[in-house]
Specification:
It is a single chain. Helix 1 (11-25) runs parallel beside helix 7, helix 3 packs parallel to helix 4 and helix 8 crosses helix 12 (318-330). The protein has twelve helices and 14 strands. Helix content is 35%, strand content 19%. A seven-stranded mixed beta sheet has the order 3-2-4-5-7-6-12, with helices on both faces. It is α/β, with parallel strands linked by helices and 332 residues long.
Length: 332
């Protein structure tokens, strides 16, 4: 039997491929950010792109996130489709005025006459020993703002399709790339494809409990599901992929099937997106199907520590998910 070769590339390469394909198809698409030219960006995502597209479309900027975001908003309003790279997602705090008061509001305030088709790409999360100011997960801040879309891909396949959809969107999109996922690989078709924003993916089907996990927690939830399966517990793992818009229907249908829900994210549990997902179930018909209280697993209420052991202890791990599932399943 002839075997069809399946191409695998890394998450990082998938980000680069998505941007390159979009830039070849549309001259209005360009990238801007600190050291993204010859250096290739803080994590090497844009390496080699300046050689193909030149410095006009791969634009190095001064070290000012507010200025970079402002330039992106302005160019988007005048018809371009900028992709803005921030070196660490923590630095979005410096660009908040442009993102929250300008990018998110402009289309609404001008009755749709001014579109803001821009993507803010940025590495997020802990696990690299980068400590408190370079390891945060602040996506719930962005999800709170009307007018912003928020994406958190967990696989190389998803990152390519979602980024292309984000670039084609006429609204500002915050695109979080987890640092620890950059070197992970999966099947990614070479041809162009998009994944609809607001469409969750069931990464693993199950019948006893639903685990909704975001970003790198998807992989931890899948590890937990594999371990639980050995003990006869069937866990369904749902990756929302975009938290704004959120695919409520897929989550509700899964909870109606399993009767149990656990939400896992890396961001600090208090005020995190987990609370929003729990509310979705509490306010839906799925609430009547629950056989046990819902559980949330999120980061501890501390800045991310530099010490590797403490850094690991600050966010949910596979054993935490397994324990939560067992407790939920045993509930009478």
């Amino acid at each position: 039997m002839n075997k069809v070769a399946v191409r695998e590339i890394t998450y990082l390469e998938a980000v680069r491929e998505a941007m390159s394909q979009e830039m070849r198809q549309n001259e209005d698409v360009f990238i801007l950010g600190e050291d993204i030219g010859v250096y290739g960006g803080a994590f090497g995502v844009t390496r080699g792109m300046i050689e193909e597209f030149g410095p006009e479309r791969v634009r190095n900027t001064p070290i000012s996130e507010a200025a970079i975001a402002g330039a992106a908003v302005g160019s988007a309003l005048t018809g371009m489709r900028p992709i803005l790279e921030l070196q660490f997602s923590d630095f979005i705090t410096i660009a908040m005025d442009q993102m929250v008061n300008q990018a998110a509001k402009t289309r609404y305030m001008f009755g749709g006459k001014g579109k803001v088709p821009m993507v803010l790409r940025t590495p997020a999360g802990s696990g690299t020993g980068a400590a408190a100011q370079h390891s945060q997960s602040l996506e719930a801040w962005m999800a709170h703002i009307p007018g912003l879309k928020v994406v958190q891909p967990s696989t190389a396949y998803d990152v390519k399709g979602l980024l292309k959809a984000a670039i084609d969107d006429d609204n500002p999109v915050i695109f979080y790339e987890h640092k620890l996922l950059y070197k992970t690989s999966s099947h990614v078709p070479e041809e162009s494809y998009s994944i609809e924003l607001g469409k969750a993916d069931i990464k693993h089907e199950g019948t006893d409990v639903t685990i909704v996990a975001t970003a790198i927690m998807v992989h931890k939830a899948l590890e937990a599901a594999a371990e639980l399966e050995k003990e006869g517990i069937s866990a369904e793992v749902i990756d929302p992929r975009t938290i704004v818009p959120l695919d409520k229907e897929t989550i509700i249908n899964s909870v109606k099937k399993t009767g149990r829900l656990i939400v896992v994210h890396e961001a600090v549990q208090r005020g995190g997106i987990g609370g929003e997902i729990v509310s979705v179930i509490a306010e839906s018909e799925a609430f009547d199907y629950l056989d046990s209280p819902i559980k949330r697993l999120g980061g501890k209420e501390v800045p991310i520590p530099y010490n590797p052991k403490l850094e690991k202890a600050a966010i949910p791990q596979v054993p935490d998910i397994i324990d939560a599932v067992k407790e939920t399943v045993k509930y009478k």
